[in-house]
Design goal:
By secondary structure, this protein is α/β, with parallel strands linked by helices. Helices cover 40% and strands 14% of the residues. The chain binds ribose-5-phosphate.
């Protein structure tokens, strides 16, 4: 029976208290719709506005690279320590437990293997399938300066249109070709183009000089890829410097899953990202975890 008396007698309007409005602490994201923000909150911790994305999508063009030969054995145990997993739909359906309830960023472009010209990608996932998989974002590789630059930019803008239709964030992944210089000038160009053309957030590489200008000139959140495996202290230092200079997180693969102690490494990276833990301290934390068995 309807509570008509309760409705008539209700009086708890808290007239002296303005309605609370809790925005996501993510730059450039305030105008997005609720569904898109909700998906972003499955990628970025809503308290820190930062993320540790565990990237394991390398097989989409590299095949079973070192550390990813058996994702069920090497990666699934790391899932509790990541904010988000970045992978392909093939790995998601075949290998990731459906009980994983954090955000998934789905690799949505592909085509050429490492044997061919990498910039010749196409969109490789229909938005309908991304929604069916209940993912938090789709990711597209953008090859600024690459041979098929325009095609890859068009892949991105098509996904952005489809994403906007359904409230799906799009991560623009700036891909640096073999011939290109990895400097702040190039990264400013590539990241800014992704943001201007509609990406919800952008992945780039850290550069030693003037990374803060790359982050500042990009009006949406930036995360850094880890790149090739380096000694753990160097990778933690890179993550720390990127965060201190304006990155909203890391999308790290090889420096985690190729580490001597992947579980220890991802937990150390997590503290650098979310707690601003200085690199030396984070490295000691890594060593402690590594030696605790
Ligand atoms: C490239 O293969 C993918 O987009 C990776 O997700 C990205 O490069 C991050 O992985 P890593 O830290 O190994 O560079």
């Amino acid at each position: 029976m309807a509570d008509t008396d309760g409705n008539i007698d209700s009086h708890d309007y808290y007239l002296d208290t303005p309605q609370t409005d809790t925005p996501l602490p993510l730059k450039g994201c305030n105008s997005l719709d609720w569904g898109m923000k909700n998906r972003l909150a499955n990628i970025f911790d809503p308290k820190t506005g930062r993320t540790v994305m565990l990237a394991v999508d390398h097989g989409y063009f590299m095949g079973p690279t070192t550390g990813l030969e058996r994702i069920d054995i090497t990666i699934n145990p790391l899932l509790p320590y990541a904010n988000t997993l970045m992978c392909t739909r093939g790995i998601l359906r075949s290998t990731i437990p459906p009980g994983f309830n954090k955000g998934v960023v789905l690799r949505a472009s592909g085509g050429p293997s490492i044997l061919k010209e990498l910039s010749d990608e196409r969109i490789a996932v229909d938005m309908e399938d991304a929604i069916r998989l209940n993912v938090a974002a789709v990711a597209v590789q953008v090859f600024i300066g690459g041979e098929f630059e325009t095609q890859s930019v068009h892949n991105m803008t098509s996904l952005v249109d489809a994403g906007n239709r359904y409230g799906m964030p799009v991560l623009g992944v700036t891909a640096v070709g073999k011939q290109m210089v990895r400097d702040a000038k190039y990264m400013r160009l590539a990241t800014r183009m992704c943001a201007e053309l509609g990406c919800t957030y952008v992945k780039t590489y850290y550069v030693e000089k003037d990374f803060d200008t790359v982050a500042a000139a990009c009006p949406v959140p930036i995360v850094i890829a880890g790149g090739k495996k380096q000694p753990e202290l160097d990778a933690l230092t890179m993550a720390y410097n990127a965060i201190q200079q304006g990155a909203a997180g890391v999308d790290m693969g090889r420096n985690i899953f190729q580490s001597d102690a992947p579980a220890a490494m991802i937990q150390a990276v997590f503290r650098v990202v979310h707690e601003n833990m200085p690199p030396k301290e984070a490295f000691e934390y890594y060593e402690t975890l590594k030696n605790t068995k």
